[in-house]
């Protein structure tokens, strides 16, 4: 390097400093705009903010109001129904599709992108497409009638008891291929030798599947669960496009509740408290997972 | 894993797998096909699958009636703009964490990544209030800023996982040969980092293109991108099946094309790097 030691010293010190300097803007931006804003939202949830933010603290009043609202209870009940069915069915279909594809079937290279296609679309597109498909007047029911099956009846999207299941259908359609990709990667990672050894020892197909393959897929199950559950809690655009929260409030979810209370009904304090509840739900799922994941890797 | 399977079973499996594939793809295929039919043919009984008179008149009508190109340009500006700004901020950060890791790097990454999983409603109120005060509501600039912020963690994380795949030995060899930090970055690192950066860029453009929570809530007429265009068509106008299909085909066409080339990146991005 340079002949003058002082200059060299300065240069090394600068070089040592650069990594920290270039990291700083990202850190500042992310922590200020996400965690800083979350703290602000948290603060608002303890105030009597309505159409405009107010800094007048009212303790837990918003939270106790929130849980007395039938609108909110409907939202979280819907989320519970939606999330459990969405996660369960997507996992089941994804695992089955991965098992099919893993049989070295013909045309896998073309089939895999087809399974994955819905995932590349926006939830808005998925919601709109399924809105038409499920609409009794123009979609599936109408088509079946045209084809001569006049007794065919499918109007879940207009029925407040069943509308939430149409959200599940659309969401599962979007995500199954993506879950499949996660399981396929897991299946391809299983050592062939173990399977061969098990087969030689006389293990049947089902036994092999249950005793060897499924346990080895544990990491894939875990990531699928975490990813699907955070998508479920965040669900907003799908419901907006598919049902708009209706009929009535039948498909209202916490995210749509939050939006309508904050901006349409001008109850910012209650909206903020619902956002805090959602944040805590996700944190409860996510923090342990990320923690374990990062510890495992190194 | 490959197991010995009988030919019969294999054929059954193939047939089932392809039927499911067709079922999954059907809604997209049907929409695209219907968009090329005349209105009469779109509701014909029994429906024709591909043997009909192909027409593009629906596209003309939709173009005339809606301002498709404005929505399209908004989508392009917002997704490309936020991705490029994001990359400029993220590349140095990811480089620093991947090649000069400190004691806290793992924790920093965890906290950064966690922000991508949090529901956006958690920061909606402050962002909305700030935007209202400085006049950024319903502007492209505003959306570029929000989407840069929202996607920055995933950009950094993806770049980090790509950079981690670059063998450190080569960097050490360059250092041994007396390459300065500048030369190391320009001649050794950059050529190996380009594929990872390109993949991250593609992934992020699609994520930004598909983003609907922020685009729906922060735009009205001026800055609305294609996601809002689709949402505006979601109330079926009478029974204009074919025109509806043409509008939605135009809305998803860019994604249909990009989606085909970017599935690997999407899976990797949406699983936060768990599936490579």
TrEMBL record, chain A:
It comes from the Bacteria. GO terms for biological process: transmembrane transport. Its main location: membrane. Keywords: Cell membrane, Membrane, Transmembrane, Transmembrane helix, Transport. The keyword Cell membrane applies. Residues 76-291 form the ABC transmembrane type-1 domain. The chain crosses the membrane at residues 21-46, 79-102, 114-134, 162-187, 268-292. PROSITE patterns: ABC_TM1. It is a multi-pass membrane protein. GO terms for cellular component: plasma membrane. It is found in: Cell membrane. Belongs to the binding-protein-dependent transport system permease family. PANTHER family: ABC TRANSPORTER PERMEASE PROTEIN (PTHR30193). This is Carbohydrate ABC transporter membrane protein 1, CUT1 family. It comes from Puniceibacterium sediminis.
Automatic annotation (TrEMBL), chain B:
Residues 72-262 form the ABC transmembrane type-1 domain. It comes from the Bacteria. Pfam families: BPD_transp_1 (PF00528). It is a multi-pass membrane protein. GO terms for biological process: transmembrane transport. InterPro entries: BP-dep_ABC_trans_perm, MetI-like, MetI-like_sf. Keywords: Cell membrane, Membrane, Transmembrane, Transmembrane helix, Transport. CDD domains: TM_PBP2. The keyword Cytoplasm does not apply. The chain crosses the membrane at residues 12-33, 71-96, 108-131, 143-163, 184-207, 213-233, 240-261. The keyword Acetylation does not apply. One of its GO terms (cellular component) is plasma membrane. Its main location: membrane. It is found in: Cell membrane. Belongs to the binding-protein-dependent transport system permease family. This is Sorbitol ABC transporter membrane protein /mannitol ABC transporter membrane protein.
């Amino acid at each position: 390097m340079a002949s003058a030691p002082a200059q060299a010293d300065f240069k090394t010190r600068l070089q040592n400093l650069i990594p920290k300097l270039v990291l700083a803007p990202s850190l500042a931006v992310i922590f200020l705009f996400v965690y800083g804003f979350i703290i602000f939202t948290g603060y608002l949830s303890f105030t009597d903010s309505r159409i405009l933010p107010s800094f007048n603290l009212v303790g837990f009043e918003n939270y106790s109001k929130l849980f007395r609202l039938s609108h909110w209870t409907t939202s979280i009940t819907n989320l519970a129904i939606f999330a459990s069915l969405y996660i369960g069915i997507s996992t089941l279909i994804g695992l089955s599709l991965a098992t099919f594809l893993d049989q070295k079937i013909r045309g896998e290279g073309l089939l895999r992108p087809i399974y994955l296609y819905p995932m590349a679309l926006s939830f808005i597109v998925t919601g709109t497409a399924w809105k038409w498909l499920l609409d009794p007047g123009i979609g599936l029911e109408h088509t079946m009638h045209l084809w001569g099956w006049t007794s065919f009846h499918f109007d879940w999207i207009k029925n407040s008891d069943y509308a939430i299941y149409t959200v599940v259908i659309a969401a599962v359609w979007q995500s199954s291929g993506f879950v499949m990709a996660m399981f396929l990667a897991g299946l391809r990672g299983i050592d062939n030798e173990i399977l061969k050894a098990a087969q030689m020892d006389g293990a049947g197909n089902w036994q092999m599947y249950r005793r060897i393959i499924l346990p080895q897929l544990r990491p894939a199950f875990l990531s699928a669960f975490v990813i699907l559950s955070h998508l479920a809690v965040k669900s907003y655009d799908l419901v907006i496009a598919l049902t708009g929260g209706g009929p009535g409030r039948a498909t209202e979810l916490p995210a749509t509740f939050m939006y309508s209370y904050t901006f349409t009904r001008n109850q910012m304090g209650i909206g903020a408290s619902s956002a805090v509840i959602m944040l805590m739900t996700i944190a409860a799922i996510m923090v342990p997972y990320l923690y374990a994941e990062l510890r495992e890797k190194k | 894993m490959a197991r010995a399977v009988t030919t019969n079973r294999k054929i059954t499996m193939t047939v089932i797998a392809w039927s499911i594939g067709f079922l999954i793809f059907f809604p997209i295929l049907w929409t695209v096909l219907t968009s090329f039919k005349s209105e009469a043919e779109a509701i014909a009984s029994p429906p024709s699958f591909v043997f009909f008179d192909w027409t593009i008149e629906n596209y003309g009508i939709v173009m005339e009636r809606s301002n498709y190109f404005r929505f399209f340009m908004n989508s392009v500006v917002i997704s490309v703009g936020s991705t490029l700004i994001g990359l400029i901020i993220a590349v140095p950060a990811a480089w620093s964490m991947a090649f000069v890791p400190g004691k806290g790097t793992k924790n920093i990454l965890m906290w950064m990544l966690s922000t991508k999983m949090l529901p956006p409603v958690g920061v909606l109120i402050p962002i909305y209030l700030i935007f209202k005060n400085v006049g950024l509501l319903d502007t492209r600039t505003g959306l570029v800023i929000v989407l840069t912020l929202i996607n920055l963690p995933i950009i950094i994380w993806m770049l980090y996982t790509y950079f981690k795949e670059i063998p450190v030995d080569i960097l050490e060899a360059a250092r041994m040969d007396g390459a300065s930090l500048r030369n190391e970055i320009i001649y050794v690192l950059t050529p190996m980092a380009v594929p990872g950066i390109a993949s991250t860029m593609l992934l992020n453009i699609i994520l930004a293109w598909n983003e609907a929570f922020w685009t729906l809530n922060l735009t009205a007429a001026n800055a609305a991108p294609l996601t809002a265009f689709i949402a505006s068509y979601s109330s079926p106008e009478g029974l204009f099946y074919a025109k509806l299909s043409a509008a939605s085909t135009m809305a998803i066409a860019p994604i249909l094309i990009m989606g085909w080339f970017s599935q690997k990146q999407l899976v990797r991005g949406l699983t936060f790097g768990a599936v490579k």
